[in-house]
Amino acid sequence: MMRAVATLRWPLSLRPLRNHLEPYFELTKPRVVSLIAFTAVVGMFLATSGFVPVNILVLATLGISLAAGSAAAFNHILELRVDASMARTRARPLPAGKLTPRRAIIFASILALLAVTILVFGVNTLTAALTFLSLIGYSVIYTLFLKPATPQNIVIGGAAGAAPPVLGWTAVTGNVDSDALLLFLIVFVWTPPHFWSLALYREKEYAKVGIPMLPVTHGSEFTRLWILLYTILLAAITLLPFATRMSGLLYLIGALALNAGFIAYALKLYRHYSDALARKTFGYSIRYLAALFSLLLVDHYRNGVTAAVQSVFY
User: Fold this and answer.
1) Pick from 7, 54, 150, 193: most CB atoms within 10 A?
2) Domain segments of the chain: what residues?
3) pLDDT value, residue 34
4) Whether the Cβ atoms of residue 227 and residue 191 lie closer than 8 Å to each other
């Protein structure tokens, strides 16, 4: 009985530590980082016909994730004033007073240093350099210069967010191939309709803090039109892996279905706007990218899996 009580009380003793660490964890935008890490891992597996070496898989995923977390933390620091004024972000660790900017800067810097060190010594220099450039591209160039200056901020700044599949690819191969650039292009074109869907139902908040997001500068209807146009362009680009024989029929069928869903959301959003529909479109865009990259991965290994199954049963 005493042992059982001790077992029940043990998690309670960890609560102060959890409460101390949780703001740091939140600073890294873990949901965003998980999607970044996933696309990077898919890039690693697509770069080889076999299995990714375990050391590369672990170290590259860790290094890229730490760099993404560092970029997110620097983004929190640089946008503290803006975050404090927006309902969506005022509960974040810095505006809520859970962390001081000084501690956040130290934390973000340590993550960046760890990321580059792991990638340089555990993976390769090219991956480390490209990862560092992506970190600077998002946390500094996008946040400080592009976001407050132009409604095309997310289009131009999307290059940093589209880098993870390339980083995964270079971690395995040590170079950038055309297939890696195709993965980059998919995420690059996906980013504007994804983010503009969010910007639509947060338009008043962006206007309040003076950030020239597309719905603020050009209006809702114009933005919805461009979301639709980008989803159509995205649908065409996502067929390229099949056209270039990077992927096969399984991927093609899945991509067609996913694109039909995205275009349907974009078309409905254009014709009959509501904040609720914009939220649903934003949510679908996240599931879309995760599912698309899952299809790329499954299709890539379908022949090997089929051969393995046949060898067992025949």
Assistant:
1) 193
2) 24-174, 177-305
3) 95
4) no
